[in-house]
Design a protein that fits this description.
two-stranded antiparallel sheet, binds 2-phosphoglycolic acid, magnesium, 8 strands, single chain, 8 helices, 6-stranded parallel sheet, calvin cycle, alpha/beta, Rossmann fold, binds magnesium ion, about 230 residues, 2 domains
Length: about 230
């Protein structure tokens, strides 16, 4: 079990870094955009702790989970068809609101900048791979001054399937021209770890992100770190 990749970094050529819950605490952005959307739909608001458990599988899953939750809380026990009917109106509203507040209620976690600098100094090529849409990810990285560290940035809509499917990791390795076995995945959830295992990438998880409300140490990974700065410690 690794608490950091330490001297093992000699066996690595690249790292793929997750965004939400790993580099940026975006829960405030999610809460703001989702509650503006719910207000447009004349539905009740949702609290941040409930949202936190729904983050990690991309925007479509998040919106369907939120709609199901608020309709259920309102005593409506919604069917999939009822959720679908709201979803058609929810998606354009969410997109508009998310882009208008993107980054305003989000903070870069401590140790992220130092960690990215250390990875670059160790000679690793870096890509950002998130399940959020690329159109949300790129402006967020720019707004937080993180875009310059990455040779490639891919979102949940960049490939045919999202994490936990291995496809986005394999495609990212292809874009970086690296072998999966020499490409470290760094994430915060079971989606990152399962995708990495299936792609053949080593994987380290941060202990402070979103993992559907479950302890991240219970997820099968090669190591766990409290800060990106500790990755090469
Ligand atoms: O949008 C999400 O569901 C989370 O995205 P992530 O892959 O950056 O954690
Ligand atoms: Mg994440």
């Amino acid at each position: 079990m690794l608490n950091s990749i330490g001297s093992n970094h000699a066996t690595l050529d690249a790292a793929i870094i997750d965004l939400d819950g790993t580099m940026v605490d975006t829960l405030g952005d999610f809460a703001e955009a989702l509650n503006r959307m719910l207000s447009d739909l004349a539905l009740p608001a949702i609290a941040a702790p409930a949202i936190e458990q729904m983050v990690g599988k991309g925007s479509e899953h998040l919106l369907r989970s939120v709609l199901h939750h608020v309709l259920d809380q309102a005593g409506k026990a919604p069917t999939a068809i009822e959720v679908d009917a709201f979803y058609a109106r929810a998606w354009p509203s969410y997109q508009q609101h998310y882009l208008s507040i993107n980054g305003d209620c989000a903070q870069v976690y401590p140790g992220v900048v130092a960690g990215l600098q250390a990875l670059r100094q160790a000679g690793l090529r870096l890509a950002c791979l998130t399940n959020k849409p690329a159109a949300f990810a790129l402006p967020l990285l720019r707004a937080k001054g993180l875009d310059g560290y990455f040779e490639q940035v891919f979102g949940g809509d960049s490939f045919a399937r999202k994490k936990p499917d291995p496809l986005p990791l394999l495609k990212t390795c292809e874009a970086l021209q690296t072998e999966p076995a020499r490409t470290l995945m760094v994430g915060d959830s079971s989606n990152d770890a399962q995708a990495a295992r299936a792609a053949g990438c080593p994987v380290v998880l941060v202990t402070y992100g979103y993992n559907h409300g479950l302890p991240v140490q219970a997820v099968d990974a090669d190591g766990y770190v409290d800060s990106l700065e500790l990755l090469l410690a």
